[in-house]
Amino acid sequence: MSNKLDPMDIYDIRSELSDDEVMVKDTVGRFVDDKVIPLMREAFEKHEFPRHLIGEVAGLGLLGSTIDGYDCAGLNSVSYGLICQELERGDSGLRSFVSVQSSLVMFPIHTYGSEEQKQRWLPAMARGEAIGCFGLTESHGGSDPSNMKTHAKRDGDDWILNGSKMWITNATIADAAIVWAMTDAGLKGFIVEKDMPGFDSQETENKFSLRASITGALFFDNVRIPQANVLPGVSSLKGPLSCLTQARYGITWGVIGAAQACLNEVLNYTQDRILFGKPLASTQTVQIRMADMSRRITTAQLMSLRLGRIKDKGELSPTQVSMAKWNNCRAAIDIARDARDILGAAGISAEYVPIRHMLNLESVITYEGTETIHQLVVGKELTGVNAFG
Ligand code: TGC
Ligand code: FAD
Q: I want to staple 373 with a disulfide (CB 3.0 to 4.6 A). Which of 63, 72, 130, 369 is the partner?
C-alpha cells in the first residue's frame, strides 16, 4: 500500500494554498519547531508566558498581520489562519497572545478608531513594543456581555470609568486595554492606558490551563479617560462582538495545530510501544482511534479553509464562524483527550504534548464563546428563534 499522503494533511490542503500562503505557513512552522516547541513545556510547568518571544513574533510580521498599512503585513485571512494553526501546534498560549493583540486589540483600533488612535497604537503594536488586552468578560457571566456592569459617565470632555473585568488575556502586561463599558449613550470602547490613575490589574494564578499565557483581572476606580481615547466607531454590543468574530475565526485554525501535535505524538509513540508482542499501532482499535483523529482534523481543515476563503471575499457570517469554532474545538479537545489515553501513564507526563494541549483546550473551548453559545447561535440561525433571551 502506498504511504504518500501527509498524515497531517490527508486532503492536501497545502495544494489549495497560494505561494504566499505556503511561505507564511512554512516560515511560522519553522519558527515554532525551532524556537517555540523546545521551550513550551517548561513555560507551561513554570506558569510563565515566554515574553522574550514577542520580539521574534513581531519581527515575523505576525501581529496585526491582516491590517494594511501602519507597519503591518497586510496578509489575507487564510494566512492569518495558518499563523494561528502553526503557533498553536506549539502551544495555545502563544496563539492566544497573537489572537488578542491582532484580532481583539489592533482590529478594533483599526476598524473603529480615530486616525490619531491608529497612528499612535498600530505601528507600536505591530512591532510588539506596545501590548494590548481586551476587556469584555465580567465576573457575573461572560456568556452574556449585554448584562455589563462596567460603566462610564461623561464629565466635561472626559469620561469616568468604574467597574472590573475578569479572565483577561495579557491583563498585567498590557500597555493599553480595550475596555467595553455601558454609558448613557450606549456601549462604548475605551482605550485605557496602563498608567491612568485608578486603573489596576492583577494576575490570575494557579491555572491548570493556558499556563504559558497571562490571564488577569482589570479594575477601574474612577479612571478619567479623555474623549480622545474613546473608539468613535462603536455604539453597541455589535462592536465587541465583531472583534470576537475575527478572533474566533483564528481559533478555528489554531486548534487544528494543537490536534495535529497530538496525532503526531501518538503516531510516533504507537509504532514503538510493544504490547502483547506487537506494536500498539498494529491493533485495530488504536488504528481506528487514530483514523478518527485524522478524519476530524481533515474536516476541521476543510471548514477553516472554506471559512477563510469566504472571509477574504468579505462574505463571512458570524454563524459560519460559530459552527467552525464549535466543530474544531470539539474535535481538538476530543483528539487531545484520546491521545492522552493512548499514551497510557506516559500520557499524564509533560514529556508528551497531549496533556498540555488537552488542558489548554479546556480554555479554548470556553473562551470566545462556550460550545453551548456557538450551538445556540447555529440553532438561532436554523430556527429563527433566539434561545438566549
Ligand atoms: P445579539 O442581539 O445577538 O447581537 C447584538 C448585535 O451584535 C450583532 N452580532 C454580531 N456581530 C458580529 N459578530 C458577531 N459574532 C455577532 N453576534 C451578534 C447582532 O447582529 C446584533 O446587531 P444589531 O445590528 O442587531 O444590533 O446579542 P445578545 O446579547 O443576544 O448575545 C448574543 C451572544 C450570546 C451570541 C453573544 O453575547 C455572545 O457571543 N456571547 C459570548 C461572549 C464571548 O464570546 N465572550 C468572549 C470574550 S473575549 C475572549 O474570550 C478572549 S479569549 C482570547 C484569547 O486568549 O485567545
Ligand atoms: P458563564 O457565562 O458563566 O457560563 C457558564 C456555563 O453556562 C457554560 O457552560 C456556558 O456554556 C453555559 N451557558 C451560558 N449560557 C447558556 C444558555 N443560554 N443555555 C445553556 N447554557 C448556557 N474574556 C475577555 O473579555 N477577554 C479575554 O482576553 C479573555 N481571555 C480569557 C482567557 C482564559 C484563559 C479564559 C478561561 C477565559 C478568558 N475570557 C476572556 C473569558 C471568556 O470569554 C469567558 O470565560 C467565556 O465567555 C464564558 O464566560 P464565563 O466563564 O463567565 O461562563
A: 369
- Distance from the alpha carbon of residue 177 to the mean position of ligand 1, in angstroms: 19
CATH domain 13-126 topology: Butyryl-Coa Dehydrogenase, subunit A; domain 1 (1.10.540)
CA distances for 29 relative to 10, 56, 63, 89, 128, angstroms: 18, 13, 16, 9, 20
Distance CA 80, CA 74 (A): 10
138 is catalytic: no
pTM (2 d.p.) = 0.98
Among 44, 143, 209, 362, name the best residue to mutate to test ligand 2's pocket (greatest count of ligand atoms within 8 A of Cβ): 143
The angle subtended at Cα 370 by Cα 369 and Cα 371, nearest 5°, is: 120
Q: 238-382: CATH homologous superfamily?
A: Butyryl-CoA Dehydrogenase, subunit A, domain 3 (1.20.140.10)
d(CA 45, CA 182): 39
Residue-wise pLDDT tens digits, 56-103: 999 999 999 999 999 999 999 999 999 999 999 999 999 999 999 999
